[in-house]
């Protein structure tokens, strides 16, 4: 198990390096010179040369990359072009705000998803299964940014129960107003994980139920909660894998929902950076979110191997 | 139907003389074939050992003969089949097919070998493409070898009739609509479609019901005579091997321990492992009922096989010599072609029973 | 042992008799799939709705009652059912029905085209990786792993954000996003099929790698890959509209559902129903693709781990 964990950790290193190269190269795809975005078009030539040297743009690409990587390894994500604040600090605050939404959304979405999935599988083919399958397929088909607008129309515009946008607290909600401001974004975010998890759980439970050992348990008269326990334990690795992916999507995909609700999270930060052409902030945000996703997958793999020894190769 | 039947002759790709080496030249000579599969483990995925699946196997198969290969599961029989077909590349070893050495540059190529040698697999279902009709599955190989589609399909239907499946009824069906026995007949027809001279039957009847197994065995024998084929018949079932084979090779942990004609093996087995195998066959004669277990324990792990003679850990006659030196393959006095790899057969080996050829059967009685 | 040649036909009549009732021509796999689909009302309805949406997008110039890009400033924000404007007008007085019809062209294109290209490229790479194994597999799959390290929405936004707005850049970024998952699924099903005996047997019959891939592997991996790709179209449509919604996709005054949703967003206090209309179409199209994917999956009897 330890060997598996260490091997899996070592495998993550080249992927993280690849991610950093990809993020670095993405910036090179920007049409035109990165400096053109930072300086007015009538800037004097010697200023351009000076800036070039300062940012290292006069060096070959691989040297620029190594320099950037070296800074990264020291926790330095650079400075925002827009307001000269360190990217790392801004990003850290924004990530916190994203997590405040993502964690309750994950709990809600995964909880409902598992419940729906198991219920649907146990009622395989019956009306309850069909109804729940429709719910989950709706969950994965809804454009969540649109669903967010619909929620705002109903609960903010028509009923005036909840605020339409904005985060009504710092770091953690402590007041009713603060909690109220979280309700709509959390519901919106939980929609996709609910749909995906319930579909995967349903399929995994059905698969396990079709295996011999469930029949054996039934034949022994053990059909009851203990059989359900066996089934859930065997369906757990697949469920865990999809939950890991979905949590990553909650963080990385928060940009649309955060834009609708004007929530100051990492997605919103990325959106602003894109429109301000603030390259260090763009690079930093994308890189950190991707790195988090890689580590999340790693944790899921190890957790899967803990539950199911067959996965340790 | 006989060998000279015109319909059988029409199946020939060309009228070129196919027998290149003459009747005395063995169809296949295998020299010291080896295949070790690496096992990777640990943090760096280092190779920590090798499964010695096939470890120095030498075999000779004469033209028109059926060579049975027997052994317990895991002894390397199936790996050997795939090595001979070159579906797995051997680590080392030499092959001579009808006088032509197998070599990509100067001799017979693998591609050419496969026009002369075909294989039937154990699992009749997974060895047929579920998306292909039976006739297409059989016609595939000739088409890959340059035969036109119409001719290949005609040949395919002809072969279906030859293996006892009416082409009119079965040609357009899919594998899942057939029974195990019928599917194995299709696999046999598929193997014959390139008009091979030699067929490797890897546990080809092992998965079938006993009654179906007998029918398919009978069919194999008929086809062998009709098309003048040479078989390597790999099986764990001694009775079946005895029924169909002319000669038998006994394998243990990746090595051939004894070879000989059916009678030599049956009546005068020299290797303790062969004797144990024979003693394990359930007898219908109440006077010859087996009381003591003829062989105990599981075969050792092929990753780390015993030193010297590989059978020594389960052999009742094992001595220190057996742990230090691997026995050479040597001829047995009783007749031509009988060979065995055991120190007890070699008077000069130093084994306390050397030259006496101790008989397990006698001791058991 | 008796090894005399017996006539095989002697055992054959029994077999023939048993099977006489069965027709000798059995339906092929795709015929069966079609038959099963024909008995699945949900999938049929979804397909019918989708055909309707696609046709109305194709024939938008014939169907649209107004120019989708020209509005009358006096006719702004007319409600659904307003005389002369069946679905009302938007914030600059353009006819909503016409814009929604035209919008389907861009939205469907940016949903279907990237997945189609990704299917060709990713399918080829994934099947090759699974089929050849070894170093070919390692190179393709390790590069895929890197792309896979990005959540799909993040990758699409990142590439689009770098490349800039416009239909072409949307297509490029979405194609890049969908290649890795298609490679993964293709590689995994191909690896399973490749290890089956019939591929070995075909190899033993002297077939060259390309022929093995074309005749033995491809027909057996196509169904699951297609099913998966259909479900990706649903995601692609949501993502493409999402990019426009963020202002990263096509730009005004183009008619595109995501963009319309964005520009009407400020109008939710005035006419929420009107503002929600483009989203209904995104949802409906995406739902149709998901339902069709599910229907295909059960008709093709494909087991997929998503």
**Beta-strand residue percentage of chain A:** under 5%
- Categorize the overall geometry of chain A: globular
Which residues of chain A sit in consecutive blocks of at least 5 with pLDDT less than 50?
Answer: none
H/I helix tally of chain A: 13
Average pLDDT score of chain B = 82
Order of helices and strands of chain B: HEEEHEEHEHHHHEHEHEEHHHEEH
Please give the radius of gyration of chain B in angstroms. 22 Å
CATH superfamily of the domain at 99-277 in chain A: MetI-like
Largest sheet of chain A, in brief, is: none
The structural class of chain A is mainly alpha
Assign an overall shape of chain B.
Answer: globular
> Which percent range fits the helix content of chain B?
25-40%
Order of helices and strands of chain A: HHHHHHHHHHHHH
Please give the share of residues in helix of chain A: over 70%
Mean pLDDT of chain A: 82
Oligomeric state as shown = heterotrimer
CATH class of the domain at 99-277 in chain A: Mainly Alpha
Number of strands of chain A: 0
Protein name (chain A): ABC transporter permease
GO molecular function (chain A): dipeptide transmembrane transporter activity
Family (chain A): Belongs to the binding-protein-dependent transport system permease family.
Subcellular location (chain A): Cell membrane
Describe it:
The complex is a heterotrimer of chains A (313), B (365) and C (306). By secondary structure, chain A is mostly helical. Chain A has a domain at 99-277: MetI-like (MetI-like fold), CATH 1.10.3720.10. In chain A, 77% of the residues lie in helices and 0% in strands. Chain A has helices at residues 2-28, 34-38, 45-55, 61-73, 87-122, 127-141, 144-158, 176-209, 212-219, 225-252, 254-261, 266-276, 279-307. The radius of gyration of chain A is 24 Å and the shape is globular. Chain B is globular, with a radius of gyration of 22 Å. Chain B has a domain at 269-364. The model of chain B is unreliable at 1-16 and 358-365 (pLDDT under 50). In chain B, the strands form two sheets. Chain B has an eight-stranded mixed beta sheet with strand order 6-7-8-3-9-10-12-11, with helices on both faces. With 306 residues, chain C is mainly alpha-helical. Chain C is elongated. Chain C has one domain (35-299): Orthogonal Bundle (MetI-like fold), CATH 1.10.3720. Chains in contact: A-B, A-C, B-C. At the A-C interface, helix 1, helix 6, helix 7, helix 8 and helix 10 of A face helix 6, helix 7, helix 10 and helix 12 of C.
């Amino acid at each position: 198990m330890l060997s598996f964990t260490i091997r899996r950790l070592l495998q993550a290193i080249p992927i993280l390096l690849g991610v950093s190269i990809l993020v670095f190269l993405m910036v090179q795809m920007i049409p035109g010179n990165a400096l053109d975005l930072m300086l007015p078009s009538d800037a004097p030539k010697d200023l351009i040369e000076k800036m070039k040297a300062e940012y290292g743009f006069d060096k070959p690409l691989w040297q620029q990359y190594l320099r950037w990587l070296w800074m990264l390894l020291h926790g330095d994500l650079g400075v925002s072009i827009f307001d000269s604040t360190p990217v790392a600090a801004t990003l850290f605050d924004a990530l916190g705000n994203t997590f405040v939404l993502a964690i309750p959304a994950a709990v809600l979405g995964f909880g409902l998803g598992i419940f729906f999935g198991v219920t649907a599988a146990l009622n395989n083919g019956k009306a309850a299964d069909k109804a729940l399958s429709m719910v989950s397929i709706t969950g994965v088909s809804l454009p969540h940014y649109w669903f967010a607008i619909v929620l705002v129309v109903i609960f903010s515009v028509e009923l005036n129960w909840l605020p339409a946008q904005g985060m009504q607290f710092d770091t953690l909600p402590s007041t009713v107003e603060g909690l109220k401001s979280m309700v709509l974004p959390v519901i919106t975010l939980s929609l996709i994980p609910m749909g995906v998890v319930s579909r995967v759980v349903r399929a995994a439970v059905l698969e396990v139920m079709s295996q011999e050992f469930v029949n054996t348990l039934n034949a022994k008269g053990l059909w009851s909660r203990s059989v359900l326990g066996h089934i859930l334990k065997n369906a757990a690795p697949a469920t865990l894998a999809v939950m890991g992916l979905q949590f990553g999507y909650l963080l990385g995909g928060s940009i649309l929902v955060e834009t609708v609700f004007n929530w100051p999270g990492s997605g919103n930060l990325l959106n602003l950076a894109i429109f301000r052409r603030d390259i260090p902030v763009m690079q930093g945000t994308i890189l950190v979110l991707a790195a988090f996703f890689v580590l999340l997958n790693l944790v899921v793999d190890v957790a899967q191997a803990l539950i199911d020894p067959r996965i340790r190769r | 139907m006989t060998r000279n039947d015109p319909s059988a002759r029409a199946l020939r790709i060309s009228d070129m003389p196919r027998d290149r080496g003459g009747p005395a030249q063995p169809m296949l000579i295998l020299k010291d074939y080896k295949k070790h599969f690496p096992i990777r483990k640990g943090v760096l995925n280092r190779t920590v050992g090798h499964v010695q699946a096939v470890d120095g196997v030498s075999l000779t198969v004469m033209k028109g003969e059926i060579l049975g290969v027997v052994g317990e599961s895991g002894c390397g029989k199936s790996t050997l089949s795939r090595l001979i077909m070159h579906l797995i590349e051997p680590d080392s070893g030499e092959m001579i097919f009808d006088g032509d050495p197998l070599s990509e540059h100067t001799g017979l190529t693998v591609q050419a070998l496969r026009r002369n040698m075909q294989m039937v697999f154990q699992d009749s279902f997974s060895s047929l493409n579920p998306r292909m009709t039976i006739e297409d599955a059989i016609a595939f190989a000739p088409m890959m070898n340059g035969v036109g589609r119409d001719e290949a399909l005609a040949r395919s239907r002809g072969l279906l009739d030859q293996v006892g499946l009416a082409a009119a009824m079965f040609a357009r069906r899919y594998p899942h609509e057939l029974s195990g026995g019928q599917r194995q007949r299709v696999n046999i027809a598929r193997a014959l479609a390139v008009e091979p001279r030699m067929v490797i039957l890897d546990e080809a009847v092992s998965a079938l019901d006993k009654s179906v197994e007998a029918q398919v065995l009978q069919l194999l024998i008929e086809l062998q005579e009709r098309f003048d084929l040479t078989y390597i018949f790999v099986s764990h079932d001694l009775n079946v091997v005895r029924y169909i084979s002319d000669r038998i090779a006994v394998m243990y942990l990746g090595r051939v321990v004894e070879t000989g004609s059916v009678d030599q093996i049956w009546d005068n087995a020299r290797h303790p492992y062969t004797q144990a195998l024979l003693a394990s066959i359930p007898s219908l004669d109440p006077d010859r009922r087996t009381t003591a277990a003829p062989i105990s324990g599981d075969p050792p792990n092929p990753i780390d096989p015993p030193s010297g003679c590989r059978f020594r850990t389960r052999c009742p006659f094992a001595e220190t010599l057996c742990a230090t030196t691997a026995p050479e393959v040597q001829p047995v006095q009783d007749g031509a072609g009988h060979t065995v790899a055991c120190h007890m057969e070699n008077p000069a080996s130093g084994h306390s029973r050397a030259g006496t050829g101790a008989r397990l059967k006698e001791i058991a009685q | 042992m008796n090894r005399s040649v017996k006539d095989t036909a002697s055992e054959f009549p029994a077999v023939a008799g048993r099977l006489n009732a069965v027709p000798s021509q059995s339906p092929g796999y795709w015929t069966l799939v079609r038959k099963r689909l024909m008995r699945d009302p949900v999938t049929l309805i979804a397909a019918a709705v989708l055909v309707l949406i696609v046709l109305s997008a194709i024939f938008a110039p014939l169907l649209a009652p107004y120019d989708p890009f020209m509005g009358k400033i006096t006719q702004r924000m007319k409600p659904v059912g307003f005389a002369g404007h069946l679905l009302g007008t938007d914030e600059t007085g353009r006819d909503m029905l016409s814009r929604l019809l035209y919008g389907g062209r861009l939205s469907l294109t940016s949903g279907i085209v990237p997945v189609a290209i990704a299917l060709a490229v990713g399918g080829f790479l994934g099947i090759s990786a699974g089929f050849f194994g070894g170093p070919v597999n390692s190179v393709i799959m390790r590069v895929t792993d890197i792309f896979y390290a990005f959540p799909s929405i993040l990758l699409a936004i990142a590439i689009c954000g770098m490349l800039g707005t416009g239909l072409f850049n949307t297509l490029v970024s979405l194609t890049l996003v969908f290649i890795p998952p298609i490679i993964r699924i293709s590689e995994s099903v191909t690896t399973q099929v490749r290890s089956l005996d019939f591929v070995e047997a075909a190899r033993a019959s002297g077939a060259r790698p390309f022929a093995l891939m074309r005749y033995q592997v491809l027909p057996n991996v196509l169904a699951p890959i297609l099913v998966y790709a259909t479900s990706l179209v649903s995601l692609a449509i949501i993502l493409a509209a999402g990019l426009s919604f963020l202002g990263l996709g096509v730009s005004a005054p183009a008619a595109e559902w995501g963009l319309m949703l964005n520009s009407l967003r400020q109008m939710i206090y005035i006419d929420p129903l009107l503002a929600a209309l483009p989203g209904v179409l995104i949802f409906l199209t995406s739902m149709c693709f998901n339902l069709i994917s599910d229907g295909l999956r059960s008709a093709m009897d494909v087991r997929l781990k998503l």
